[in-house]
Amino acid sequence: xxxxxxxxxxxFHDRAVNQGEITLRFNTRGEVYAATELPIIADSGRLSKPLxxxxxxxxxxxxELGDFVVYAFEVSRDGRYEVSVIATGYSSYAxxxxxxxxxxxxxxxxxxxxxxxGAGIERRLGEIALSAGPHSLRLEVVGHNExxxxxxxxxxxxxxxxxxx
Length: 165
Fold this sequence. Notes:
Jelly Rolls; single chain; seven-stranded antiparallel sheet
C-alpha cells in the first residue's frame, strides 16, 4: 500500500488539563510504500519484524551473504519512476542490493553506521519503467562494511517519483 497524503497529529496538554491537537496534512511527490506495511512473499528464512517504538524500520536478521527478503508492492499507473529507498544504518548492518522484478537497480547500499540512523537516509537508485499492477522488491545481502559487526537489513520505505516526460 502506498501513501500520497500523510497526516501527522500531535496532541498536547498543559498543567491545567487544557488539551488540544494539531493536525498537519502533506503530500509527497510520488508513491511512498512503508516497509512495515508491505507483505513478505519470500525470504531466506531469517527473522523479519518491525522495530517499533519511535522507529518505522522493517528489520531483517540476515546472517550471511546471499540472505534475502522479497516484498510485494503495487504501482497505481504505468510510468517511468525514479526509485529511492530510505535505509536505516547501524554498526551491524550489511551492504545490500535492491532488485525490482528480478532486476538490480542502482549500486549496492552500504548501511553501516557508527550510530543508529533511525530516521534513515534516502538512497537514490535510478530510474525504471513500471506498469500498473503488482511488482516485487528484493533486498539481498551482497557484503558488509569491514567495520560492520553483521549482515542485518533495516529499511523504512520505498519511494517512486514519477519522471516528467
